[in-house]
Amino acid sequence: MSHVFPDLPYSYDALEPYIDAKTMEVHYSKHHRTYYDKFITAIKGSELEKTPLSDIFKHISKHPPAVRNNGGGYYNHILYWNCMSQYGGGAPDGDLADAIIEHFGSIAQFQQMFAEAAVNTFGSGFVWLIVQDGKLAITSTSNQDNPLMDVVEAQGEPILALDVWEHAYYISYQNRRPEYVDAWWNVVNWDAVSENYAVALAQHA
């Protein structure tokens, strides 16, 4: 097993008008690529070159900051990209929708709670929908931490990720994070999130 830098699953302009092409190009080819390159440099010559990211994150407190920060940035962006699509938007259905309604009351209430977590995340970070002990939960992390790491308050299997670093939205939205979050719902790939949910449940069955 080795760590590879995946292709973006769509073109830079695919998510317009909600996320502009220039933001996508810079975010993917500069920010994400830099996290990956620095992560590879940080683990070069060590057993981590062949260790799955999930196993690295389980013991991230034992590794240098370069592994934590850049490994997180590498993984977090992969999930973020894959949770979006030009064919996204709308609402989830099936088992995921049932679970969201069970845990949050309704799809609308879930979206409101998730959006509030995103808007209220101080500084840079990510907001997540996770599976924690078989149940859904919303959590946020600072910088490039994620819920798979042993250093965060709420651990779980991430199934949906929202990047709230300013570089994710500043070209189009400047400091108006709430507008970015509102627009982002139009590109959420609920099919991918549903698949992530099914995998997370199976892993802990």
Radius of gyration: 16 Å
CATH architecture: 3-Layer(bab) Sandwich
User: Count of helices?
Assistant: 8
Low-confidence stretches: none
Q: Which strand order do you get reading across the main beta sheet?
A: 2-1-3
**Beta-strand residue fraction:** 5-15%
Shape: globular
First and last CA, distance: 25 Å
Number of strands: 3
CATH superfamily: Iron/manganese superoxide dismutase, C-terminal domain
User: Helicity level, as a percent range?
Assistant: 40-55%
- How would you sum up the major sheet? 3 strands, antiparallel
Order of helices and strands: HHHHHEEEHHH
* CATH fold-level topology: minor pseudopilin epsh fold
Return the domain count.
Answer: 1
CATH class: Alpha Beta
Average of pLDDT: 97
Secondary-structure class: mainly alpha
Enzyme class: oxidoreductase
Domain Manganese/iron superoxide dismutase C-terminal: 92-195
Keywords: Metal-binding, Oxidoreductase
GO molecular function: superoxide dismutase activity; transition metal ion binding
Written description of the protein model:
One of its GO terms (molecular function) is transition metal ion binding. Mn(2+) binds at residues 27, 77, 163, 167. This is Superoxide dismutase. Residues 3-85 form the Manganese/iron superoxide dismutase N-terminal domain. Residues 92-195 form the Manganese/iron superoxide dismutase C-terminal domain. This protein is 48% helix and 11% strand. The protein starts with 20 loop residues before the first helix and ends with a helix. By secondary structure, the protein is mainly alpha-helical. The protein has a single domain (20-204), classed as 3-Layer(bab) Sandwich (minor pseudopilin epsh fold). Helix 1 packs antiparallel against helix 3 (65-82) and helix 4 (94-104) packs across helix 5. The mean pLDDT is 97. It has a three-stranded antiparallel sheet. Strand 1 and strand 2 (135-142) form a beta hairpin. The radius of gyration is 16 Å and the shape is globular.
